[in-house]
Design a protein that fits this description.
heterodimer; A: Methane Monooxygenase Hydroxylase, Chain G, domain 1; four-stranded antiparallel β-sheet; 28 strands; B: four-stranded mixed β-sheet; four-stranded mixed β-sheet; 28 helices
Chain lengths: 613, 804
């Protein structure tokens, strides 16, 4: 029965896989690679020289040679290794990837390595536009914030969307969908014409999208990362985008054709911040280890390595003249770096516990926020102009409103506030929240089934069967002896002595039977042990097999019951026999119930398998 | 008719489980159940105990009934139904037990707490183990504290270290933490949580509640209890469920079995599954350790061989034998025979004075008709100076008396003399500690202060004192709570604080250093940098007057009678000397997860140690006159596999110093050691690293650390080669001219051969050996060469190299 169900599943799969649409790299295969392979086989640090992030790279293969042979999965390591038909088995040290996905890889290779189907919808380049914001079930940390330099607009991260607020009314203008995942960085281009959004799905994918702020359509998409994009920026002329993230590589892309121009591998830890100089000649990036680097954006040459921060560099903001930039760090300092001298010109303690964000206004003022829940405004030398706050939680992002009369700051609790630099009431920007009614927060407590300490029921039952057969025989023999005794009694009715003799004879016989019982008991124990071992082996085998074992036990018990009933016709008022029958009937019932449970488990498991597929 | 009935009843009994004798009692644990809140559960363990001392898990088949419907029970788990109190009746095989059940807040769902709900789920999933995110530098950019020793730090790292990356309150079930844990996105550690499993849901619900920090008054676990406390499986194949209950600072308790990590120490005897089910896999003993939060507790498991066993009581010579025999009966082990006088003589000499008995001493002992002659021998040996030399050496090893850290040869000589004088003068260990720990002054003027020159950091000093005097290794707790013991970082730094006020200054003599009580200085906790006050290890925080020397306070507590660990450690060291392994082994690694093989024996010896004021001679007398010490090394059918219950003596290779002394003794030669008068024995060496090739390759302690593992008796190739070809055997045979002298005494070659046997092996050659020797000697006119070969061969035998 179970096998039949499984068969049906497989048939369904094959049906799906062999449907009219061909299996393509873009649609079917890349998501599989992303889920299981790209962590190691990526463009940045391809393990074994193999990069599985693009079709071209896949065709190229790795140090072991070609990864795929079109049309021949049996010769393609890309199929054989994950299918565990070839060593090393992939992914290393982990269970085999689901059969459904292996089938897809196989079908893709068999089908001739199609990259994408001709009629696949073109990338969302032309799509987009401002939509109504989807409310969140509850507020969450704001991971990205940008204030437009050309319009009274604030962009902040929402869950898989970008929220746009209008100033000074604080009204929510709409949202830009970001189905790629969470938004970790937002930047406006210097002229405000492009809103850059970077992010993705943690541990899986990352991307940067440029939105045209006129139409709110997607202008370009760059990057195809194996983890989220944590930092990104766009040049003033909108020709280049820089991005970085947990991959430890800073990449520069051309927005025109989406091609990668440079990859800087200097950072030793996650890239948390990166920014182009306003005139576009330099690009700076800071990492989680405290490393801070500057490259030439055009040539890709390394320009400076700046030492000073002792903890993660969380933010970089350039001065308008491009001759200096400010860096913020978890070490609590803000440092200003002079590009002419290549050295630090000034640093100061800005926020106890760490600075998490910094912005540099074209007027020369700096804004910063940090773990002390405060927002500070500084002049270019580190003299504090304003001390704002406290915010609701640690301040994650800050940005000057045009004119630098206000600072917009977002915090961990999800609050976005516009703080007047001169002091006074801050104004809250309300992200749409639609608290769902609280689910009955009852978490089921598992109730583990205790394992029986003694041999399992089927074992004792099947040995029971043997013993019952023996018992019947012994009972018959005893009955014969008894009959003989009766005969002797009848024959020697006249003399009591003769009868006593006969009774003595019967007693001796009973002694013999008792001895027999002892031997049988020992045998039964041995048998029980053997059956137990067998049962263990069965239990180790799959569930259905165990179910079959139980079926067999059920049958055996039924038979035992029949024999007991037969024995009862021989000795109708034998109390022990009656008890035995009652017990066996009960065992039978239990066994049937257990079988039903096992069957339920199987179907539950099957449902799980189905749903997981 | 009646016959048939009898037959059937008997057969039925044989067929079912009740073939064995019915239990003599049942034990239900825990014995009180208190449920608070709708999610609270409590597992029960019902254990049947049989007449032979074996136990069986009957939780599944016991009948359980409440007298009032305040709770429900399924699979041995009690769940709340309504507020109130009731009695639970447990019945099995004619035995019954009752336990009170109280239910409070049956309908209330308490808010989830990071420390008590989330962290246990992460620990149980294995997220914070040493090879995953619990590693010192984390894994793949994410670090958690090892086994959750730093809940506040873990909360920070999960929520705010990289805001927005790991958790997402707007989409709790779609955040990196859970996507990784369930394997939805690539995760090096694979799938750790089942979607919709309890651990997963705990995390989701906690995120939905805003991932709050715990309020400051959140109850902390204060201890855990593991049930059952003891398991005696009658045979392999049986299993037993475990239940772990945590008690909290607010007086509440919880069943934390499903958040507990179980580890067994002997899979050959018993394995433990993730859910805490123990399965017996073979005869022997295992300790199943349960770890929850910062606590470790465990259950001792005995698995009997399952073969018929008839206890064969042997006469107890003293209390030692009583405890050993009790354990052997429990394990179904039969003790070995008592050894012969010859064997005993050699064994006692080597163990007590580190020398071999001379043929004359042997003759006298064997001829003595006194039935108490073994006791007499022990008493006589205990009075010899060589006995004290051995123990000076042992204490010197533990105190690491060696030229290091700028200790001058003069300082060393004085330090050694200080210890030697005290031991010779009958100072017992408590008095030595009382002088040593609070020692102040110049290293020449008061040599005991050299202890504070050997090691100078408070942490290292605390570790050494704990290891040497309490047999406890607390090193792990310097950086994180000890994963296999009770020690937390608080314990570690509290203990180290006793050494935080030691002042050092130069003395007039440039070779001398002055140590004094600086009466200022603080120990700081690395988490939060707070000041830690001195606290006794596993004890209270003493009140210390300002200016009082912390070390004096510590010294008083250390050897006081209410610190049973000092006494047990002392007893264990003494025991290990005579058996080659401690009751706790390794000797200086007493921890929850490494329990004594015979707790009652260790306790009894510890108690005696206190009674004897830590006089090692008195304790050694008890041990050496016990029957257990006098057993042969021969194995019998039942104790073949036993290595830890002292069912027989074990052959022990002589330690390097004793071996050299014995070779020197039988060859009648002497050794020259730097700084010691000629004729000194190797056990009298002052300085740990004294250069000597023989001692080095035979594994003497260099005293570089306080670990008892410094003394090595494992065989190496160099040892074998050296004995075959090296100076110490052939050279000393030639140098000592023993054979020439014996031959000159007009002994014939056969007699000389016998004499060599008596010297080296303390026995006469067997007839077979004699025949072979005679055959060899008969062929050559000059027996000298052959006798030297025989001598050499004897020194190379295991019988010579080992005490047995």
């Amino acid at each position: 029965m179970v096998t039949v169900r499984l068969f049906v599943f497989l048939a369904v799969f094959h049906g799906a896989a062999s449907a009219a649409e061909p299996v393509t790299f873009a649609k079917d295969i890349k998501p599989i690679f992303k889920q299981h392979c790209i962590g190691c086989h990526n463009a940045d640090r391809p393990r074994g020289g193999l990069d599985l992030s693009t079709m071209a790279a896949v065709r190229e293969g790795g140090t072991s040679g070609k990864a795929v042979v079109s049309g021949k999965p049996e010769e393609s390591l890309l199929y054989l290794m994950p299918a565990h038909l070839e060593d090393p088995k992939m992914p290393p040290g982990k269970p085999k990837i689901p059969q459904r996905q292996l089938d897809l890889i196989r079908a893709w290779i068999t089908g001739g390595l199609v990259e994408k189907s001709g009629n696949a919808p073109a990338v969302a380049a032309a799509t987009g536009g401002l939509v109504r914001a989807l409310p969140l079930p509850r507020a969450t940390a704001i991971t990205a914030l940008a204030v437009s330099p050309s319009a009274p607009l604030v962009a902040v991260s929402g869950h898989k969307q970008i929220l746009l607020f209008r100033l000074p009314t604080s009204e929510l203008a709409g949202a830009l969908p970001f189905p790629e995942g969470e938004v970790h960085v937002l930047r406006f281009s210097h002229d405000g014409r492009i809103l850059l959004a970077g992010g993705g799905i943690g541990g899986q994918s990352g991307k940067v999208v440029g939105f045209d702020t006129e139409s709110w359509r997607r202008a370009f998409e760059v990057g195809d990362e194996a983890d989220v994009v944590l930092a990104a920026d766009i040049t003033a002329d909108r020709s280049k985008v820089v991005l970085g993230g947990p991959g430890r590589v800073v990449k520069v892309f051309s927005t025109g054709d989406g091609k990668q121009l440079h990859a800087f591998r200097k950072p030793t830890d996650w890239v948390l911040s990166t920014s182009f100089s306003p005139e576009g000649l330099l690009v700076a990036a800071g990492d989680r280890f405290g490393g801070l680097y500057v490259w030439e954006a055009q040539s890709g040459k390394e320009f400076l390595t700046l030492r000073g921060h002792t903890k993660a560099v969380t933010g970089i903001a350039w001065r308008a003249d491009s001759n200096a930039f400010a860096s913020a760090s978890e070490d609590g300092t803000i440092r200003i770096w002079d590009m002419h001298t290549g050295a630090e010109s000034v640093h100061w303690q800005a926020h106890a516990g760490g600075v998490l964000a910094v912005d540099f206004h074209s007027g020369g003022m700096l804004a910063s926020g940090g773990r002390d829940k405060r927002i500070h405004v500084w002049d270019g030398t580190g003299k504090r102009i304003a001390n704002l706050g406290p915010a609701g939680d640690i301040v994650l992002r800050v940005g000057f409103a045009p004119g630098a009369k206000e600072v917009v700051a977002a915090d961990w609790s999800g609050e976005i506030r516009v703080w007047p630099v001169a002091g006074g009431q801050s104004v809250k920007l309300d992200a749409p929240i639609e608290a769902k009614p609280a689910v009955a927060a009852v978490i089921p407590v598992p109730n583990p089934t205790p394992r029986p300490s003694a041999p399992a029921a089927p074992a004792s039952l099947s040995s029971l069967r043997k013993d019952l057969a023996d018992a019947r025989q012994a009972a018959e023999r005893a009955n014969e002896e008894l009959a003989a005794a009766r005969k002797a009694l009848a024959a020697a009715k006249d003399t009591v002595r003769a009868a006593e003799e006969a009774a003595a004879k019967a007693r001796t016989a009973a002694g013999a039977v008792a001895a027999l019982v002892e031997t049988k008991t020992a045998q039964a124990q041995k048998e029980e042990e053997r059956v137990r071992r067998l049962e263990e082996a069965i239990a180790k085998a799959s569930g259905p097999a165990a179910g079959e074992g139980k079926q067999a036990a059920l049958k055996a018990t039924t038979e035992a019951l029949a024999r007991l009933n037969a024995a009862r016709t021989l000795a109708p008022d034998n109390a022990a026999l009656v008890r035995a029958i009652a017990e066996t009937e009960r065992a039978l019932k239990e066994l049937a119930a257990e079988l039903e449970r096992a069957d339920n488990n199987t179907s539950r498991r099957n449902t799980r398998i189905r749903s997981s597929r | 008719m009646r016959f048939a009935a009898i037959v059937l009843t008997v057969l039925f009994a044989a067929a079912g489980r009740s073939a064995e004798p019915s239990p003599v009692r049942i034990v239900v644990e825990p014995d009180v159940i208190e449920l608070t809140g709708a999610r609270d559960r409590q597992g029960l363990v019902v254990q049947a105990e049989f007449a032979d001392g074996s136990t069986r898990d009957v939780t599944a088949s016991a009948e359980m009934i409440f007298d009032k419907p305040v709770a429900t029970i399924a699979n041995g788990f009690v769940a709340p139904a309504a507020d109130g109190a009731a009695t639970l009746h447990v019945k099995y095989a004619g035995h019954s037990a009752t336990l009170p059940v109280t239910v409070r807040k049956a309908k209330e769902v308490e808010p989830l707490r990071f420390r008590n709900d989330v962290l246990p789920a992460l620990t149980r999933a294995g997220c914070n183990t040493g090879k995953c995110h619990g590693a010192a530098s984390g894994k793949d950019g994410f670090r958690l504290s090892l086994f959750g020793y730093d809940p506040a730090g873990d909360h920070f790292r999960l929520t705010r270290e990289l805001s927005g990356r790991r958790i997402n309150l707007a989409a709790p079930d779609d955040c990196l933490l859970l996507n990784k844990a369930t394997g939805k996105v690539p995760h090096t550690g694979g799938r750790r949580l089942e979607p919709d499993g309890e651990g997963y849901l705990l995390l989701v619900r906690w995120l939905e509640s805003g991932a709050p920090k715990d309020p400051p008054d959140v109850p902390r676990p204060t201890q855990i209890e593991v049930f059952p406390r003891e398991v005696v499986f009658a045979a392999k194949g049986e299993s037993q469920r475990m239940v772990v209950r945590a008690r909290y600072s607010d007086g509440s308790d919880r069943d934390v079995t499903r958040f507990t990590v179980f580890v067994g120490n002997n899979d050959g005897a018993a394995t433990v599954a993730e859910d805490g089910t123990i399965t017996a896999t073979g005869a022997g003993e295992a300790f199943i350790m349960a770890r929850f939060d910062e606590f470790t507790a465990g259950t001792a498991v005995i698995i009997r061989p399952g073969t018929p066993f008839v206890a064969s009581p042997t006469p107890a010579f003293n209390y030692v034998d009583k405890h050993v025999q009790a354990k052997l009966d429990k394990m179904h082990l039969v003790q070995a025979e008592v050894c012969t006088d010859e064997v005993f003589l050699r064994r006692a000499y080597l163990d007590l004075i580190g020398l071999l008995p001379t043929p004359a001493e042997r003759e006298k002992f064997l001829a003595d008709p006194d039935p108490e002659k073994r006791v007499k021998l022990v008493d006589a040996l205990l009075k010899r100076d060589e006995f004290l030399d051995l123990w000076v050496m042992k204490w010197a090893e533990l105190l690491q008396i060696r030229t290091a850290n700028g200790i001058s040869p003069k300082g060393l000589r004085l330090y050694d003399r200080w210890l030697r004088d005290r031991v010779r003068a009958g100072f017992t260990l408590d008095r030595i500690v009382a002088e040593l720990l609070p020692a102040a002054g110049g290293t020449f003027e008061n040599p005991a202060v050299n202890f504070y020159q050997t090691e100078t950091s408070p942490q290292q000093l605390a570790e050494n004192v704990a290891q040497v005097f309490l047999g406890t290794r607390i090193q792990c707790a310097q950086c994180h709570n000890h994963p296999f013991d009770r020690w937390t970082m608080d314990d570690y730094y509290g203990f180290a604080a006793f050494f935080s006020q030691i002042g050092y200054k130069n003395a007039q003599d440039p070779r001398e250093l002055t140590v004094y009580n600086a009466a200022s200085g603080e120990m700081r906790h690395p988490l939060g940098d707070r000041v830690v006050r001195p606290r006794f290890l596993g004890g209270s925080a003493p009140k210390i007057e300002s200016g009082q020397d912390y070390r004096a306070v510590l010294a008083r507590w250390l050897s006081s009678s209410d610190n049973s660990r000092f006494a047990r450690n002392f007893a264990n060291i003494a025991w290990a000397h005579f058996f080659g392994r401690g009751i706790v082994e390794p000797v200086d690694d007493m921890r929850v997860s490494n329990p004594p093989s015979n707790p009652a024996l260790l306790a009894a010896l510890g108690q005696k140690a206190v009674e004897y004021h830590f006089d090692v001679a008195k304790l050694a007398r008890d041990i050496c006159t016990s029957r257990t010490y006098q057993l042969t090394t021969r194995r019998n059918a039942t104790n073949r596999w036993d290595e830890r219950n002292f069912s027989r003596q074990s052959p022990r290779r002589l330690r390097a110093e004793v071996l050299l002394d014995c070779i020197t003794q039988v060859t009648e030669t002497t050794n020259e050691f730097p700084g010691l008068p000629p004729g000194s024995r190797a056990v009298q060496l002052r300085d740990g690293p004294t250069p000597n090739y023989f001692l080095t390759i035979f594994g003497r302690s260099t005293r570089a650390t306080a670990c008892t593992c410094e003394v090595k008796t494992a065989p190496t190739l160099s040892q074998a080669l050296h004995l075959i070809n090296g100076e110490t055997t052939t050279g000393k045979i030639a140098e000592g001219k023993v054979i020439e002298r014996l031959l000159a005494e007009k002994k014939d070659a056969k007699q000389v051969a016998e004499e060599l046997y008596l010297r080296c092996l303390c026995r006469k050659p067997t007839p077979a050996e004699s025949a072979r020797i005679a055959a060899k000697l008969g062929r050559e006119p000059d027996p000298k060469q052959n006798l030297e070969d025989l001598f050499w061969a004897l020194l190379n035998t295991n019988e010579f190299l080992f005490n047995h």
